[in-house]
Amino acid sequence: MIGKGKYDGITRYNASIPPLVDDMPIILSKDNKNLYLQQNRCQGCSACVVACPTGVLGMSNQLNMRLACIPRVLPRKEDSCVLCHRCELACPAWAIYLIERGSKDSTHLEGVNVSHEGE
Fold first, then answer.
1. What is the distance between the alpha carbons of residues 111 and 113, in angstroms, rounded to a whole number?
2. Which of 81, 6, 13, 4 lies closest to 48, judged by CA?
3. Are 71 and 60 contacting, i.e. CB atoms less than 8 angstroms apart?
4. Cα angle, residue 14 at apex, residues 45 and 39 outer, rounded to 5°
5. pLDDT digits (tens, 9 = 90+) for 93-115
6. How many other C-beta atoms lie within 10 A of the C-beta of residue 29?
7. 3-30 pLDDT tens trace
């Protein structure tokens, strides 16, 4: 685990409530983005692992409160991540988020920028 993030107002396009990234560990930090995992939301289905085109993610032996194995970044694979969002989009439980650091007032998704000012 690299560290903990700070809530920055980012919401997923298909989630009605923004993730509270304060309590989510950062499992990867690259360029200007952090990959967060909401561990207790994870179902252990490994969809994120299968969706990863570069093999950065793998399943760990660590169990969450659902007694499901959670994904992890494989050793010496951190630099292989291409920040493609496939792990995030594949997750049926919305447990993994790739969020740009420092974006406080807008949602960034595949080049789409929707302002949340005035809310």
1. 6
2. 81
3. yes
4. 40
5. 999 988 887 654 334 444 443 44
6. 17
7. 444 444 444 444 444 456 666 788 999 9
In one-letter notation, the amino acid at residue 84 is C
Q: Where are the domains of the chain?
A: 3-114
The dotted CATH code for 3-114 is 3.30.70.20
* 55 Cβ neighbours under 8 A, 6+ residues apart: 74, 77, 80
Nearest to 21 by CA among 108, 30, 46, 12: 12
Q: Which residues contact 76 (CB under 8 A, 6 or more apart)?
A: none
C-beta separation of 35 from 29 below 8 A:
yes
Tell if the pTM clears 0.85, that is, is over it.
no
**70 with 56: CB under 8 angstroms?**
no
Task: Give residues with Cβ within 8 angstroms of 75, minimum separation 6.
Answer: none
In angstroms, the CA 97 to CA 95 distance is 7
